[in-house]
Amino acid sequence: MAVSLNLPWHLQQEAARRVLHNGRVGYFEWTTHYGFDMEKTLKLVGISVEGEIPVHDPGLNYRYVNGPLEPRIIEYFEIGK
Prior knowledge:
With about 80 residues, the protein is mostly helical. It contains 3 helices and 2 strands, in the order H-E-H-E-H.
């Protein structure tokens, strides 16, 4: 959402940290409660979702983020630097 709204970089980084945290505990949403499409947002900034299976079914929405997507988010948003 922070990316979609073009918020300042530090807020985008904080939002990415929350995405990672939620993904690590199985609470990542490909489509948020507010209707933001995470697949489109990630692609907008050049983060590939290859190797992931985006699910936009509200009944099956929560996922873990592990595998190839996690390091891509960390790298793009410079998490931990």
